[in-house]
User: Fold these one by one.
Assistant:
Number 1:
Amino acid sequence: MSQESMERAVPAAIRKASELPTTAGEGWMVRILTREGCRDVRLTNQAQVAHLTLELERLGFVLQVDDGTDADFVFEQSEMTAVTG
């Protein structure tokens, strides 16, 4: 996937997940690391997190384990899918 496509796909995935019905509560913080930087998204229910997770995995992001941040979930663009140049 080209870098331009990726720059459009990640915000679209966040938007789609955010459109799902919400519930009361604190929710979860999802951090998305791309070549351009870091994007933090707060989602309020499991369905939103699940939807975003599936979309990010489809785009080639991987879940980081024990990253030492305050985020509940951290996804990083896989080296195999990162566009160089």
Note: The radius of gyration is 13 Å.
Number 2:
Amino acid sequence: MSLWKSKTTKVSGILSYLDAGAEQEVFAVTGVQRGFIDGIILDLNTITLNGTIRVYSRIDGTNYRLLVSHTFTVGVDPVGVFLDMKFPAHVDFRVTYEESADEGAARAIPYVYVLSE
């Protein structure tokens, strides 16, 4: 029997990346949750043009600050993107995606992350 008791919750959803360009929020977590985020997975299978994934945190409690910027290259990078990050879930954060050029249509971006207590 383990002395450590950990509860994990899988959180998932799908962003419909609008054919409007610009940086769009895939999902956000506000500081009302306890525990840790243990990795983020994005499915970029429907994306046809290069783009950029960004992760921001509201470190000072007011302003979002860029933590990670990852360029996604179609045909080169795997379409399943794993962001190996572990950080406290009580700090607000958000994940965004931005196309490098107009996709020409809305695209689905499924995501999943694990919340561990």
Note: The CA atoms of residues 56 and 65 lie 5 Å apart.
